[in-house]
Amino acid sequence: MLFIGTKKQAQDSIQGFAEKCGMPYINQRWLGGMLTNFETMSKRVSKMKNLQLMRASGEFDLMPKKEALLHARELAKLERNLGGIRNLERLPDAVFILDTKKEDIAVTEANKLGISVVAVVDTNCDPDLIDYVIPGNDDAIRAGDLMCRVISDAVIEGKLMRSKMHPEAAEARPRTIEEEAAHEQRQAEARAQAAAAAAEREARVAAAKATASQAPPAEAPDTTTPESASPSGSTPESPHVQDAQGEGDHPGDGGESD
Length: 258
Prior knowledge:
This protein is about 55% helix and about 5% strand. It is of the alpha/beta class.
C-alpha cells in the first residue's frame, strides 16, 4: 500500500506511520506519472540509489568540488521527492490518500490503472472516485494522525496474518543505505580477488609455455645399421674369409722352403 499525503499537516504522519509498517509513501510532492509512468520513475529511483552509494563510499570527496556539489544537490532533490518509494519495485496494490482534492492527480492515475483507493473523504471531496471511503476531517493534524495510525496497524496485522498462513511468502527486510554500501564493497572485493586469481593462473600458464619453448630439443636416437655405416661401394667381409686370409699369412704354412 502506498501512503500519499503532501499537505503540510499530514507529512509527518504519513512518513512516520508508513515507515512503521514498512510501506512506501509520498509526502512532499506528487510528480505526474508516478503510477502511469512507473518505468521512468523506477529509473530515477535507481539514479538516486547510485548517488547514495557514491556518497556512502566516499566518492563525493574524491570529485572536484563543483561536480560533488552538483551531485549532492541532485541527490537531495531526488531524496526529497522519491525517498519514500525507494523500495517500491512494482505498482502498489492499493493507495491510501488523506486529501483527495489536493491529490486529485494521484486519484486519477490510480483509477486509470485499476488500483484500489482508500481515502479520507471530507465534505468538499467527491466520494464516487474512491473505492473505500473513510468519512472524516482531512485538515486536522490529530485526525490525519489517527487515520494513518489505523491504516498502519491494519497493514501490520495483515502482514502478520499472511506470514502465519504462508510462511514462505514472508517479505525480507529491505537493506539500508549503509548495508547496501557494505554489500557493494564485499562484492567489489570478491570480484578483485577473482580477477587476481585469474591473472595468477594466466601468469603460471605463460611461464610454463615460455620454459617449454626455451628448452633444447631432445636428440634423436641413432637408428643407423652397420651396413649403412660402412664406406660406400664396399661390402663387409664374412668371418670365414677373414680366417682363411689369416691362416695364409703364417710363415710355415704353404710357403716355399729355402
